[in-house]
Amino acid sequence: MGLPQESGPGIKGVAPARTRLIAAIDTADPQRARFLINALEGKVDAIKLGLEFTYSCGFDAAREIAARHPVFLDLKLHDIPNTVAAGLKALCPLKPVLTTIHASGGREMIARSREVLQEAFGDSPERPRLLAVTVLTSMDAAGLNEIGVPASPLEQVIRLGKMAVEAGADGLVCSAHEITALREALGPQVELVVPGIRPAGSVANDQKRVMTPAQAARAGASWIVVGRPITQAEDPARAATLIQEELASA
Ligand SMILES: O=C(O)c1cc(=O)[nH]c(=O)n1[C@@H]1O[C@H](COP(=O)(O)O)[C@@H](O)[C@H]1O
Q1: Is 83 known as a binding-site position?
Q2: Would you say residue 14 lies in a domain?
Q3: Which residues form a coiled coil (predicted)?
Q4: Pocket of ligand 1, beta carbon within 6 A
Q5: How many other CB atoms are found less than 10 A from the CB of residue 125?
Q6: Which of 19, 45, 64, 90 has the fewest C-beta atoms lying within 10 Å of its C-beta?
Q7: Range of 176's domain?
């Protein structure tokens, strides 16, 4: 797993030079995590450690992995600005490549988050890229409506995405369905990190707004995030290789 060389697409409104693959290591078992990370060495561009791994295996285990691999630390912080900023400050020693907060936490929360990272890293390329999660890929219009958002997922992603980038986010987590509109609204530099990815023929599980790796790459994803289609495959390394081949030929 090499550190990412390219950041974002090169030409306005078109796909990045290469859409990179992140494997989500969603497990509570440190041995299983180690097995998967070893199996995926050289096959994926980064690994994602999220709530399940970090809460079960601990921050030190995450730190150990981040010292050896490019890590997307996905803890989706969402609290008052002061608390989120302090939480992010505590995460800085891990030096993740990417990390997440919720865009719906609001402008000040995002701005304070960016400030903390800027203070810790200055303009160093090691500064973790701050991603704002827009509308979870497990949500559809009915789900949004139920929580009092009378907009389509696309409208809400664009609304939150514009605000988050203005406030200082380097990128957004969105579904592949919103990439084209986000690129039109925000241009080529913004990092678009896209979960809800399912290779053709695989089950959606709890994901609602899904697309294939090739569709996401053609739309202009900077990164795709794939969990169960890799981690629950009989041969995770082969599953990752097939996805990389699909991305390369998209
Ligand atoms: O922030 C994320 O990574 C994320 C945001 C989102 O809207 N949807 C989403 O699925 N994710 C994460 O992406 C991964 C998707 O896993 P699979 O559905 O197993 O491919 C999980 O680790 C989720 O936590």
Answers
A1: yes
A2: no
A3: none
A4: 24, 26, 48, 50, 74, 100, 133, 136-137, 173, 195-196, 205, 207, 225-229
A5: 9
A6: 90
A7: 20-248
State how many domains the chain has: 1
Structure tokens of 235? 């041969």
Residues whose CB falls within 8 Å of the CB of residue 64, separated by 6 or more in sequence, listed in order? none
pLDDT tens sequence across 15-55: 447 999 999 999 999 999 999 999 999 999 999 999 999 99
At 133, which helix (H) or strand (E)?
Answer: strand 129-133
> Is residue 3 assigned to a domain?
no
The CATH number linked to 177 is 3.20.20.70
Please check the confidence at residue 237 and state whether its pLDDT lies above 60.
yes
Model confidence at 4: pLDDT above 60: no
pLDDT for 1 equals 53
Say which residue the tokens 């990815």 belong to: 197
Answer whether 92's CB lies under 8 Å from 128's CB.
yes
Three-state SS for 226? strand
